[in-house]
Amino acid sequence: MKNNNHEFDVHLISHAGLTPIDAYLQRAELLNLKPDAIIYPLNYIDFRLFRKHELLKDSLLSEENEGILIRDALDFQQAPQVKHSNPSGVLTDFYSYLNPEEIGFFLSSSIFSSYRYRELIAHNVIRYLDHRNSRNTRYFWYQGVQIPERVSTLGWTGRQFSFRVIEKMVTQGVYFQIVPEVLEDGKLHFQIIENGQYEEFTLLGYGWKEFRIPSKYLNKFITIELKKTWRPNLASGDRFDYAREEKGVRIQETFGLESPRQNYHIYREERSEDLRFLKMNRNEYREYFEYRLLSDRHLRPGMVTLHIYKESKLKLNQEKFSPLFQYRYLKLFSEYCNENHLKLILIHNPENPVSLEWYNTSEFFRDQEVFFQSLKNEYVYYKDLSSYLDEQDFSDYHHMTYPGMEKMNPKYARIVEEVFRNE
Fold it and tell me: Was domain 2-78+302-421 assigned CATH 3.30.70?
């Protein structure tokens, strides 16, 4: 965009998707922000069709049973953000769907901020205490310096990892988490490589181990190379995982920094998981996809949701599209934006071809696309990118890898440019 003398400030409305009901509830607040445009990516998951299949089973979606799904979409367990973001809006827009207990719940949240935000306050206090009492060993995700060879989201290196030595690494040391699989005679063997010179070191035992980097390496760029590595799918105990990538040791969450970064959660850096699919062909990717995400369902309760999504998509092949539930509120939100001359750019976001093939030839999918197209108006724009990316650009059904996002970023920019160019 800068190349064409266009520059925009981008503000994130949501970090984890936005259902049309949520967007509709926030319509006045969004209008008050006076944005030049709202970019709204549409994903299968945001329409909550899997909840329809769980709650209504094989019943057809109709105006008679739509209320069940709307109440579910406002339920605190399913959508806690509704209570925090706009409880008074729920009472105004959805009063007829609520029972007396739910009315009291949202009324209390509207009047008393202590009740409205109590879960957020408690959550932050608990996380603070966990972090303090565990002496900073509570690992959320890796937020240290970027490692040229890349580390995983949880900070696991490969056989080699390189970095510049800062003073804290010399005076206070660094910590490596060592697993039994990389030990030889009970020791981790590794070497520091700097300017073609090698120096051997060992650390005894497994767990988090301190290592003080010799002062002669201060301010120098070094590489640590491990003698042995390990693979999670061949490990035992809590180290076992459905991943085949080579791993080394785990480095600290803020490795290489004098002080933690601020507001780091809004940034996304490339991690080793992003690169594992790049050299795979179609068959290799699909076999690994099935293994990582869908194998051994009975042993992996944390992955059941992915099976629910798959089953829901397959059921759409026997269903007709109905513009109800979340689709109804997408239409209402679009009409609101158009009436208020607020540009709304709807983008049917890319989906992994593996999961898209489960339902993209269905009558439901075809009529859904017709519905999306029908939303276009003077201030409402729509673009279908559902098939835009390759399967290797996804880590699961719709979450993109870093290379996938690099492909999408200029595509989003061109769509926005086109909208403003045609004013």
Answer: no
